[in-house]
Amino acid sequence: MSLALVLIDELRDVGSFVDGWNGPTQRDFARYIERLGKPVDALTVADLKAAAAFALAELKSLQERGLI
What we know:
Blueprint: H1 2-10, H2 12-15, H3 23-36, H4 45-64
């Protein structure tokens, strides 16, 4: 049970990209995953967290430039 709770906590930010985010951020997240070139079953928690960090950085860049 504790491993499941750790996994839920680790993936909390990743889950945000499934529902409620803007299109550009979802595309950045998907593009990062796609560029890894791994099948979905081979993705790691670290891969998903890196994709989330990439998408959030892209969002921040768009916001800083006043594009959204």
